[in-house]
Amino acid sequence: PLLYGVLSVMAVQSASFAATAAARESARGFVSAASPSEGAARARAATRLVLADAGVPVVVPQIRCAGTCLAPGSRVDVTVAVDVPLPLLPGGPSVTATGVESMPVDVYRAAP
Asked: Does the pLDDT value for residue 13 go beyond 90?
């Protein structure tokens, strides 16, 4: 039981770090884009790369703009939620690891 507990905690912690990193990199990619559609593509690509690198199932990030998307001074919120199956239990229960990042759009950038 102790070994199973350690393996479960390690799997959930690894997925939690990956989800947080994916949300952060997705938000960075989005706010540096020239248009909202380019930003969404960058966010999806960043999420895919980070999660694949961590060995976590790839998901699509949820992106929400506070204010007008990519307007100077607005904010972009990205959420990445990953379902982590518990080890040694195929088809068994899973835990959801969520990463959330909120990133401001530079106030000195030109409006899209």
From this structure: yes
